[in-house]
Amino acid sequence: NAGVMQNPRHLVRRRGQEARLRCSPVKGHSHVYWYRQLPEEGLKFMVYLQKENIIDESGMPKERFSAEFPKEGPSILRIQQVVRGDSAAYFCASSRDPSDYGELFFGEGSRLTVL
Amino acid sequence: DQQVKQNSPSLSVQEGRISILNCDYTNSMFDYFLWYKKYPAEGPTFLISISSIKDKNEDGRFTVFLNKSAKHLSLHIVPSQPGDSAVYFCAASGSNYKLTFGKGTLLTVNP
Fold first, then answer.
1. Do B44 and A91 touch (CB under 8 A)?
2. Dihedral of the CA atoms B93, B105, B5, A55 (nearest 10)?
3. Closest residue of B to A103, CA-based?
4. pLDDT tens column, A28-64
5. Is B82 helix (H, G, I), strand (E, B) or coil?
């Protein structure tokens, strides 16, 4: 499967725990984007990363959320001390070039449930 | 502040008929518009797009129309098929990587 791979597909955490979501982009793509979809809402931009660089994190909550895309390995979205409001579907997308911005390849999403 | 609005949460049409999904936007800086299709438990997949320099783009059964003066776009699917049943998201961009999505419209095509 050459598409965007996200894991875990489903994650359940209790309040105060940490959640780590992983994303492997399409082979050859070096630009990764994370979007969040809250219940009954559209997808909202969180962060744009290139290898080893955060380009734009304007959509990320200021606290508890962080993202990385190391030289080797998948991109990681990390949520510390989760709260019920973090329950959402988190989608990762990738592109070969930022000028391909319109036609992003999305993964199947990671659905986080906070109890 | 919802910059991209899809006012119809759902739409039901008969197989073979036309489906028309609508989308309004408020940000004049948007110059590129897209439709994504999403099945349950899957990620969105790109369907069709249109640049602000055009008013129509067609791809097979799918046509997107853009009315810049009204800040309105629509997606036409003709003829509709049961496999088209999905949530359709309208998205917009201001010449950069950041997409702003609407809340989506659930299309149901009845056999």
1. yes
2. -30
3. B46
4. 888 999 999 998 889 999 999 998 899 999 999 989 9
5. helix
